[in-house]
Amino acid sequence: EVQLVESGGGLVQPGASLKLSCVASGFTFSDYWMSWVRQTPGKTMEWIGDIKYDGSYTNYAPSLKNRFTISRDNAKSTLYLQMSNVRSEDTATYYCTREGTRGVFFDYWGQGVMVTVSS
Amino acid sequence: NIVLTQSPATLSVTPGESVSLSCRASQSISTSIHWYQQKSNESPRLLIKYASQSISGIPSRFSGSGSGTDFTLSINRVESEDFSIYYCQQSYSSLFTFGSGTKLEIK
Asked: How far is CA A51 from the centre of its chain?
């Protein structure tokens, strides 16, 4: 059974940094591109970016490229999202997703982790 | 960015009715559209890929159609478990975008 389990969320002050993790199981992690997607409290869905199966290439939404970094550790079957200089508009539920076919659709989603940016 | 406009925002129906949800793209995207269902307090689930291709484990009452700019998700005889939010997502551009969703609620 495919499982994606995120962690690392919580309450963070504006301007701070935060790193989210996603542990994958039930499939060969190193065979798949992976993405992060977030959903605001108003239910708006936004794709953040993705990373190639071997970690050699990343692609980001232009609006987030300068503050967010995606990485992975295939030995640990873990995906990461490093968030820096966070803003109130980054308040959202963050989902780790598997790309069923690279750059097309998201066939598995984690349970999501909430990030709240507030002073 | 390719903008996806979903309509209606909310659809109120009685169980047993059949419904169609619309997703319109701001430019032609061939069949690069995918549909997701999100039940309350759950993660989204992939329903349909490439506009009309079925997904293993998804009930056959869900179907998709369309190409170019206009796409439709159809639910044949809505069941109680179908009351959720439905999103479309495009992959024509490498900047993936989602529609704003259609909430299917019980009348």
From this structure: 10
Q: Does A114 touch chain B (CB under 8 A)?
A: no
Can you tell me whether residue B96 is helix, strand or coil?
coil
- When scoring B43, B45, B54 by the number of chain A Cβ atoms within 10 A, the one with the most, hence best to mutate, is B43
* Residue closest to B73 by CA, chosen among B32, B102, B40: B102
* Contact by Cβ (8 Å): A99, A76: no
Q: In this predicted model, what pLDDT tens digit does every residue of B2-53 receive, in sequence order?
A: 999 999 999 999 999 999 999 999 999 999 999 999 999 999 999 999 999 9
Query: Bridge-partner residues for A78, per DSSP?
Result: A23, A73
Q: Return the biggest CA–CA distance within chain A.
A: 40
Q: What pLDDT score was predicted for residue A24?
A: 98
Q: Which structure tokens are listed for A9?
A: 């969320």
Name the minimum distance, in Å, from the CA of B45 to any CA of chain A: 7
DSSP state for residue B17 in the 8-state scheme: -
Instruction: Determine the Cα–Cα distance for residues A60 and A86; give it in Å rounded to an integer.
Output: 16
